[in-house]
Amino acid sequence: MSATKLKSFYVLDILRKYSDSEHRLTAENICSLLKSEYSVSAERKGIYRDIDALGEYGVDIKKTSTGFFVDTRVFRVAEIRLLVSAIQAASFITPDKAAMLTEKLSSQLSVHQAEQIIGKSHIGVVKYESNEVYKTIETVNNAISGHRQLSFYYYKKNLSKQDVPQHNGTRYLVSPYAMIWHMDNYYLVCNSAGHEGLTHFRIDRIKGAYPEQIPWRHFSEVSEYKLRFDASDYAKKCINMFGGEITTVTLRCKNARITEILDKFGNSTPLRRDGNEHFITIVDVAMSTGFLSWVAQFFDGIEIISPASARNALKEYLKQTLTLYE
Prior knowledge:
The chain is of the alpha+beta class. It folds into four domains: 4-70, Arc Repressor Mutant, subunit A (Orthogonal Bundle); 74-129; 145-236, Roll (SH3 type barrels), CATH 2.30.30; 241-323. The chain is 37% helix and 25% strand. The strands form three sheets. Strands 3, 4, 5, 6, 7 and 8 form a six-stranded antiparallel β-sheet that branches. A four-stranded antiparallel β-sheet has the order 10-11-9-12, with helices on one face. A hairpin with a 3-residue loop joins strand 10 (272-274) and strand 11. Helix 1 (7-18) packs across helix 3 (44-57), helix 4 (77-89) runs antiparallel to helix 5 and helix 10 (289-296) crosses helix 11 (308-323). The longest helix is centred in the C-terminal third of the chain and has 16 residues, at 308-323. The chain is elongated and about 80 Å long. The relative contact order is 0.07.
C-alpha cells in the first residue's frame, strides 16, 4: 500500500503524538511533520479532509483558531502517572522493565504530556534484577485460567545472599487460584497437594514454573468460596499475606484508628460506638502472625475482644516478643 493511501493514519499518529490542549498543530505543521517523518507530501485542503474523516471515525479532534489537537485519549495524564507509580513501586519489576513499561504507557500521551511523567516520579523501592518473574506470571496465569495444577521450585535467601531451594530441593505441586499484589510484592494463592486450606508463595521466588496436565483441586474444597474465588475479599482477610483459618474477630478500637480499620477492611466494615472514645467492629481475618503483628503495632489503640483464642494468641505473641528484651 502506498504511503499516500495511509496518509490519514499518519495524520492521526502525528496528532496523537504531538498535539494536546496546550500544544496545537496547524495544517501547515501537520504537512511539515508528514514530510519529515513519513516522506509524504500533502496540502492543507487534504489535511482538512483527513481530519474530517478521522472525526467521522470517532477520533475526538478539536479545531480552534490556533490549530487542531486530540482532546480525548484512552488515558488521562493523571491515570498514566498512577500506573507509572504502581510500576515503580513493584519491587519484582526490574529497572529496565519498569523503564520499558513507562515508555509504553507514556506513548498513549502527547510527547509534551509524557515529559510530565518520565523521570518525574521516584519511589524508594529495592528492585529485583531478574526478568524471569514475567515468564512465571504468564505460566501461573495460564495454569489458573486452564484449571490445571502447577509445579515449581521455590527459593529463599541465606546469610550468603544465595538462593536456596526449599522443600528439600523438590518441586512443589499446587492448585493455583489467584495472584495478589500486596505491599509491593506479587503472591500466588493456592492449595498445596496433600494439604488442606490455602497457602501463599512469592511470585519472584518461584523458578521453573510448569503447568501440569492434572486438573486442579477446586477452591470450594479448601476455602470458603464456592462459585468464584474472591481474591479481593481474601486479600482483605489475610493481613500482610499471612494465611490461616478464617476467624470472625471482635475488635475494640480507639476512634483515632477508624481510618486504619476502614483502609484495611473496607468502607462496608460495621462500626459501633462504644463510649466517647472507642468503637466496636467485627471482621473476618485469617488468624495468623500477620494479623497479630498488625494489631500489636497500634499498642493500646486496638484490642481483641473475642474470640478468647485470638485474644490469648495475641497475649502469647506479646510475651514471646517481650522475652527478647528481658
